[in-house]
Design a protein that fits this description.
By secondary structure, this protein is an alpha+beta fold. 42% of the residues lie in helices and 13% in strands. Strands 7, 8, 9 and 10 form a four-stranded antiparallel β-sheet that branches. Strands 13-14-17 form a three-stranded antiparallel β-sheet, with no helix packed on it. Pfam families: DUF3131.
């Protein structure tokens, strides 16, 4: 029995020999398998080329030369084609932060729309364009992050692509920013709408183009917004037309009326021309409606069409010419016109001591909106309502006009006077005021999306330059097949 137990435990006395035998056996087996497979490890069947797989990307990493895939792929679009950006100074950023405060206070997350005036839930497509300009700029300057930017843009697009259209043709003139419903100018429900402003549509198109250029992922949704609109009655005969309901008609018949006068007409006409529409009159300053008057020996262009015939005045103001250059670019036509707009206001200051920068603006008192003009209805320096009622005692130095001129003519000493004069016209918690009353009446404390949006866009212009020319250089922006839009010279009135 003892001998048998000893024989059974032989393996306990020779552990090293047994382990060596097992190791040799494993090595021999591996060699045989390697030889059978031709010296290469087996590959999975039906996988001729899996170089694009996530597993391959991970397996290609070696040593310290690691590729962090999402760090690279999640980067925004290349902006090198926009050119070398000009650095903004601390004062520029201070100006931007004050302007952006307005949009922080007046954002409606349910619709993605911003109020046109402080705390008043109403907006137009013009003001929505200004708000879009501000949002693009705020992101570019680092005032909001990518998540906030995308959230606001997506919310705005949801409204723009679903909002009810006037007569199923194009956006109504006014919408409630809380609900997205069509309203009238008193912000009262208007289920049938009140009309369409083609100039307002141009404003939103301009900034949809800049959005598509700087953020190409939004080019397709921007295109779909515009393709909802029926432009048949809005663009024809080389001009632009608006729609409104005839208040004297029992049926509330829709009237088609030519819209735009020299200045704003060309700003808007160039934008639609970029989309491929015929704007042979509206996009040209040297058209048959242009006339000239001399003020302080400076030739000022104005529109000769009689307001008694067409129901609209030609307001010669700073804003349209400044926006034309900032957005559409400086050219042989608008360069001398803008220079004269600047020069005539400078000469009034030299002659009277009144710092002058006029434009249309909201007011913080009745009549609440006024056109402060260089020339209107045969009169220089006329401050008037849209009905032609004069309020010269309410003439203001417009903040957006002053800062626009200062940005566009930085080398001229008058620009410093302009910027210095309006430099404190703001509430740090609400945004930039609309202006300062010329007669010593203090600040015009109306605060709007348009004033603050234009100020934001001026800083984006300073950084990159004129928007449409820059985007063309990048070969980015909106493209539209206008053949699908039933524009015509003679159309049936709906």
């Amino acid at each position: 029995m003892t001998q048998q137990n000893n024989n059974n435990r032989w393996w306990q006395r020779r552990p090293l020999q047994i382990g060596a035998a097992w190791l040799i056996g494993l090595l021999l087996a591996s060699g045989i398998i390697f030889a059978i497979n031709g010296g290469t490890p087996p590959t999975p069947p039906n996988n001729a080329d899996n170089r694009g797989s996530l597993l391959d990307l991970v397996s290609q990493r070696s040593g310290n030369s690691r590729t962090d895939t999402f760090c690279e792929l999640a980067k925004g679009p290349d902006k090198s084609c926009l050119g070398e950006p000009q650095a903004l100074c601390s004062k520029d950023m201070e100006v931007a932060k004050i302007a952006w405060k307005y949009f922080e206070n007046n954002y409606n997350p349910a619709t993605g729309l911003y109020n046109a005036a402080d705390k008043y839930q109403s907006t137009t497509l013009w003001d929505t364009g200004s708000a879009l300009a501000a949002t693009i700029t705020a992101h570019d300057l680092g005032l909001i992050d990518e998540k906030t930017f995308d959230g606001r843009i997506q919310a705005m697009f949801k409204t723009l692509t679903t909002m009810e259209l006037f007569n199923k043709e194009a956006p109504n003139k006014v919408y409630h920013t809380g609900t997205g419903a069509m309203v009238d100018y008193r912000n009262q429900p208007a289920p049938d709408g009140i009309g369409v402003s083609i100039l307002d549509l141009a404003r939103i198109v301009s900034w949809l183009n800049t959005l598509s250029c700087m953020h190409p992922k939004y080019a397709y949704p921007s295109k779909k917004v515009i393709e909802r609109w029926d432009m048949t009655r809005l663009i024809k005969n080389g001009q632009m037309y608006g729609l409104y309901r005839n208040p004297a008609s029992k049926e509330k018949a829709i009237v088609v009326a030519q819209e735009g006068r020299l200045g704003y007409e060309q700003y808007a006409g160039k934008i639609f021309r970029e989309l491929g529409y015929d704007q042979q009159i509206s996009a040209i300053y040297n058209n048959k409606f242009r006339a000239t008057t001399n003020i302080y020996d400076v030739p000022i262009a104005y529109d000769s069409r009689d307001p008694r015939d067409l129901g609209a005045y030609n307001y010669v103001v700073t804003e349209s010419y400044a926006m034309d250059v900032v957005e559409n670019g400086l050219d042989a036509e608008n360069q001398p016109l803008l220079a004269n707009i600047y020069e005539v206001q400078k000469r009034r200051w030299q002659d009277t001591g009144i710092v002058t920068a006029v434009s249309e603006d909201n007011l913080d008192q009745k009549p609440y909106f006024l056109y402060n003009t260089i020339f209107t209805a045969g009169l220089p320096w006329n401050a008037t309502t849209d009905k032609g009622v004069r309020h010269d005692n309410l003439r203001t130095i417009s903040v957006k006009a002053a800062l626009s001129l200062a940005m566009l003519f930085p080398e001229d000493p008058y620009s410093k006077e302009l910027a210095y004069t309006v430099g404190t016209a703001y509430d740090p918690e609400r945004g930039w005021y609309s202006g300062i009353y010329e007669n010593g009446g203090g600040y015009n404390k109306a605060i709007t999306a348009n004033t603050n949006g234009i100020i934001m866009s001026l800083l984006l212009y300073k950084k990159y330059g004129e928007f449409y020319p820059v985007c063309k250089r990048c070969q980015r922006g909106l493209t539209l097949d206008v053949a699908k839009a039933n524009t015509c010279d003679t159309c049936e009135i709906k």
